[in-house]
Amino acid sequence: MKRNKYKGLIFLLPSLIGVLAFYLIPFLDVARRSFSKAMGGGFAGLSNYREVLSNQAFRLAAGNMLRFLIVCLPILLCLSLAVAALLKAAGDAAGFFESSFLLPLALPAASIALLWQAAFGGKGLVNGVLEGLGMEAVDWMGGGSAFGVLVFTYVWKNLGYDVVLWLAGISSVPAELYEAARVDGAGRVDCFCRITLPLLRPVAVLTAALSFLNSFKVFREAYLVAGDYPQEDVYLLQHLFNNWFRDLSIDKMSAGAVLIALSVLVPACCFRDRGRDDWQGRDGR
Amino acid sequence: MGCLLWRDKRARRALGMAMAMILIASAAGCGSGGGDSAAGTEGGPGGAPSAEGGDGNGAGGQSGGKGRFLEQGIFFPERVSSVEAIGMREDGALLAIGYDESAQRYCALISDDLGGSWDSALIDGGLSGDARCAAISRDGTGVLLDASGNYVAIKFEGNPSDGGDEPADSSPSMDGGGLSPGGARNDVEFAIGGDDGSDGGETGGNGSDGGSGEDGGSDGGAFSCSVSTGSILLPSAFGGKNGVSCAAYAGDGALLVLDLDGEICRVDALSGKLISAERLKTDIQEPVEYFMTAGSHVLAVTGAGVRQMDASSGKAEDDGALREATEGMDLRSAQDGAYPIAFAEGSEEDSVVFACHEGLFYHQDGGSVCEQLLGGDLSSIGDGSFYFKSVLALGEASYLVLGEDAMGTKAYSYGYDAQAASMPQGELSVYALEDSVALQQAIAIFQRQNTDIYVKKEIGLSGEDGVTAEDALRSLGTDIMAGDGPDVLILDGMPVDSYIEKGILADISPIVEEVMDDPGEGLFENIAEAYRRDGKIYEMPSHFFVPLIVGDEEALDACGSLNKLADYAERLAAENPDRHVLMPMTAEGLLNELFYMDSASWSLESGAPLEEDVREFLSCARRICDLNDYEGGAPNPDVTNYSISGGTLYGSLNFGETYRFSQGTLLSFGTAANLDNMMTLSAWERSAGGDYRLFGGEDASFVPYVSAGILAGQEENEAARGFVRLLLGKEYQSVSRDGFPVNRAAISDQQRVQRGYMMGFAGADGEMNVADVDALTEGQLDRLIGELGSISNVAQTDRVVQELVVGEGLRYLLGEADLDGAVSAIMQKVGLYEAE
In angstroms, rounded to a whole number, what is the distance separating the alpha carbons of residues B646 and B434? Predict the structure, then answer.
């Protein structure tokens, strides 16, 4: 048993070395730099953190990111669960839809950006339709609607992925439970609310965690559509970091990265603990 | 069998090991294979090994090998302002035909020491106008032709006397290769021959007194010439009179000339007053733009690239390797009989040597590759402003290149030195976001002066890989952070303020002050002081350009502000409803020009412009743009920035002036970029009774160009300091015409070599008009220097701000956004940029 345990460690070692070399050690260097001046490496104390926290651009970007998460995550999780439930109910006939929901995930970000420019540009498809209906054209990416477009992009792109996760979770619920409930007179809604949802909690934690992490990738589309300085509602943290990197503001970038890492790690750990508790709870059922 | 092998554990291990070895070997192969190039390093021309291996562009790798071509300047007598043709006689004497500036006549030149010293003789009369082209054959015959086909044939006979000439100053000097003040001359006047024009008088001997500019007189020395004159009658496809644009001697002694129809004609002997030329019956269909010969071959540049044909029959020859080697080069631009490429016969039979900005190449007829002998980046011929007239194989592994740059004729010889390191031992890296002719010129001069240092030019936006400026800056930042940054930064388009704040740039004020205090140089103090911060200077432009307005007094009064300009433009439009106010411009081009003109007047708050300034800028720009009412828009929508295009700084005002005088537009404004711009502006305005004035009046601004800085930590790097010193120095700035030089001595030097010319243009009524464009007078130069010396404001040069203002402003100008929306977007985005 002990020998097997060490064998396992040996197999884990390459990936551990990779994580150390490419993530942990660089991150420790970033943490060190967050207390240093931009050039020369002199100790700067907490001044970089103070500067970052008082920086208007950082506040705006962090606020936008938070707002984006608060709006997007519930919409995505609820919508994907609903779609998954419908697909499950549809049975074998839903195979085509399962695949088609995954299609946006396979599209490169650059293609999506082109598509979005064609759709939401000043003389794009959507405005063409609006004008055809006698309505006024909207500056989708230059006005307040830019945030809505970004949310729509995120949901559209990640819906299929979450649907697949939910479907996997729903499929793992034992069929006997539903049969027993039906024998006891439960309807479809009762089954969903009292059996499916409680048993999907571990999947929900995983799906939420992955959706949370994926939300940081929406920057690619925002950047490709609107560049370094988009409309202020879609100015995200990655825009700021990108621009700081361009200007060699390594000190601010390091401090900002540490703050963001902490703000991501804390909820991620909570998710992880919650997920483990749920799985353990389910095992001990 | 396979299954048996798979079941054998040892065999599986052996297979695994073999696969791993293959992987490692292939990876190593990938890593080492990059240095191979078609240029190769095998035996070169005439037994000289090629000096350039390595990376395929001639730069070579940093190998420890030995042997490369070294450059030396060749100097002509001081009075010879230009050399039209150069050739080598069979006995090894160098022959040239040039123009004697002091005598205002053409002259024949001869040297028996490969350009170390020259004897010269004036050619009296012969051509009524300027010579269009010249050629010299190996049998010692030269010809000078004007555009109408009139010729003066010159037979060079004898050799220069031993004591008759002083050696030309062949040491590299601050003036570079070319016309050295040290060159001595002995003049002999050629008398044009009898009435029949066939035989010229023979003049012999040359001065033996080593005279300093005085005619040497004929004392029966060895050098003698005879001249004859006449005209070549060229066939014409349209029945009218044809002309000559290019000439060269074929290996069999026949003269080939290019007519204005783009056809090559052959003249077997220049005898008689009127000689008929016959067109070569070639199967090459495209019109020839210019050509040169290499023995019995003609190398012609056509719209389809380089074509090779037989000089006697005109039959097209296999030219695959030459075409491949020259593919992608811009070969079609020409400058006063000088071209982007020159061909000649190599030192071996049926070989071709050619020189272009990419370097010096050798090709053996029938060979599959062109071998690079010398990289353009290691020599003066890499200078983008250098145009070629001739290349000569002087012997085994020795070549001569004749050409022109902004300062006149330059000639260089290249000899193979087997003991020299194949690559310079030192390296200086220069980084710029965008390549420019001005930078290429600086590197070429630095390279010539520092043969032991290789200048590695790194360009962020090569235009070939879709990299954006932001990507390039991030990549540069990574290199700097990794300690692998360049030595010198060309800061145009870079976030200079941020770099200074981070301590990335070194203080270059000692270099600036050294040039400023040098009595032979001097800088515009106002320009230098505009860059001083807390007593230090971190960046300094080598050139600058200025926004101007031209016209009558009323137009000049409108130069105070953009608002006044827009008022004036609208009034002109109202008073002249049937005429265009402006030349056609794209909205983006117009916005960029107006940005250069107006941005210096904006008040800044925390680095961001005030909203009212941006609002006024956009509303004035819209008012002016609305007058740009050409049907179908601007003729060339690809041109988005009229001041800088394709790495060359033009100055947009000349375009406006050309339209104003040829098409009858009412108003021209924009930027002036050099003394040549001012020459043409003066010519236009003299004819119209107008004048010019700096835009902005007392708050006039300048736009910097080629701003240089040294990376912190490299301030003690002698090469980096030397390069920045060169950028600010007279030698480079006298040559580079991309912008007004910041060096006061250079601007005077430029004025000294200005030559007047006649400019023809079609007027709005279709009539041909001619304007005399004269060199600036001392008074005009003094006025200009005074005005340039009074400017203290720098135009807004932050690339991000300019892109944001122009990007959002464009939407307003094109009607895609309203003024409030555009101003709000600009303020929000610029605010974000500044807040970062």
Answer: 10
